[in-house]
Amino acid sequence: MSDIERTEFEVPESPVDPHRHQGDTDLEKSLRPKSLNDFIGQPKVREQLHLVLSGARQRGVTPDHILLSGPPGLGKTTMAMIVAQELGTSLRMTSGPALERAGDLAAMLSNIMEGDVLFIDEIHRIARPAEEMLYMAMEDFRIDVIVGKGPGATSIPLEIPPFTLVGATTRAGMLTGPLRDRFGFTAQMEFYDTEDLTQVVTRAAAILGVDIADDAAVEIASRSRGTPRIANRLLRRVRDYADVHADGHVDLDATRGALEVFDVDDLGLDRLDRAVLDALIRGHGGGPVGVNTLAIAVGEESTTVEEVCEPYLVRAGLMSRTGRGRVATAAAWYHLGLTPPEGTPGAL
Fold first, then answer.
1. Annotated active-site residue in 76, 92, 233, 274
2. What is the pLDDT of residues 128-154, one digit of tens each?
3. pLDDT tens track for 54-65
4. 221 and 184 in contact (C-beta within 8 Å)?
5. Cα-only R_g, the chain
6. CATH class given for the domain over 271-335
7. Which pLDDT value is given to residue 4?
8. Given 94, 169, 170, 202, which residue is catalytic?
9. Choosing from 17, 24, 116, 121, which is the catalytic residue?
10. In the chain, where does the domain assigned CATH 1.10.10.10 lie?
11. Of the candidates 245, 251, 150, which has an alpha carbon nearest to the alpha carbon of residue 210?
């Protein structure tokens, strides 16, 4: 199991799946900005983080612990790396699922140097024994190491140098209250608009040596579901298409041709998204329908439909979640080229 897990369950590697795919790691390393000034988007988070880090540097102290919250693919890992870069310290990386025992965390903390940044991805999935040890480490910069078992077990206090913990979570609601309260600064990462994503695509194209037209960059950005990771992935797929069909030049025609081949439509929906809408509308008259029924209809696990498809369909205004089940909006009917029945909210 890798240090940074992609997700809690396996999902199909769709071009518009925001979770990390097998081939994303090397690309993301080459495209990651190195400073807050180079980071595109998230202006409020950048300003807040600049104040937190600059204030700590001026006082000569270790910055407060930082919690980065938001959907996958928005740059939480990149932001953690930038924190270490801005402070001029080392970055230690792990993930919540990797910390199964208190000893796993103790081994990592025992190697921390003063001022280091410890990054824990998906921190809401950390095991309870390790989490309880983390409380003391965050608050008092010490841990108690248990030596031996049973009645003869001995607790040995171990002082650790002041450090900054950066935690990242896609599910802030799953964090326990005691853990959440120990973070001095919490940043909520937001989805990107098309303008910022166009800058992301243009910057990535320049780094990768891709000859891309301005309108092609906008087209990729508009189909990226507000997520830089998806924008970079689509750029790779469009580059592949352009290398084969357009002598490497990415223009608007090549971009649209590539995204059609890879089943990404003008709203950023992929095959599975459209299958869910089709099952909801053609199969069940627009709902309400339970998620398990939809999952069976499209041949996927219910967790895949609920965690991968639904968030964007709801955010795009194509689906509503009600107490009785999922309901298609008028926009979803129109997107499939159908006329919604009378009484559908938003129907013309």
1. 76
2. 888 888 888 888 888 777 665 656 566
3. 998 888 888 999
4. no
5. 23
6. mainly alpha
7. 39
8. 170
9. 121
10. 271-335
11. 251
Residue of 33, 69, 37 lying closest to 232 (CA atoms) = 33
> Tell me, which fold does domain 194-261 have in CATH?
Helicase, Ruva Protein; domain 3 (1.10.8)
Q: By C-alpha distance, which of 278, 286, 273, 262 is closest to 313?
A: 273
Does 119 count as an annotated binding residue?
A: no
Residue 38 counted as an annotated binding residue:
no
Out of 3.40.50.720, 3.40.50.300, 3.40.640.10, 3.40.1190.20, the CATH code matching 32-188 is 3.40.50.300
pLDDT classification of 289: cutoffs 50, 70, 90: confident
Q: How far is CA 125 from CA 96, 174, 236, 325, in A?
A: 5, 8, 31, 28
Whether 77 is catalytic is: yes
Residues of the chain with CATH 1.10.8.60: 194-261
Told to judge if 170 belongs to the known catalytic residues of this protein, a careful annotator would answer yes
Residue 272's pLDDT band, with cuts at 50, 70 and 90, is confident
> 58-103, pLDDT tens digit by residue?
888 889 999 999 888 898 999 999 999 888 888 999 888 888 888 7
- Alpha-carbon distance of 113 to 83, in angstroms, equals 16
Whether 144 has a binding-site annotation, put simply, is no
- Measured between alpha carbons, how far is 155 from 166 in angstroms, rounded to an integer? 27
* Residues β-bridged to residue 211: 249
Residue type, 275: A
Q: Where in the chain is the domain with CATH 3.40.50.300?
A: 32-188
Q: Is 241 annotated as a binding residue?
A: no
Catalytic residue among 17, 20, 62, 77: 77
31 annotated as ligand-binding: yes
Confirm whether residue 321 is marked as ligand binding: yes
* Global pTM exceeds 0.90: no
Backbone angles phi, psi at 164, to 5 degrees: -115, 120
The annotation status of 73 as a binding-site residue, yes or no, is: yes
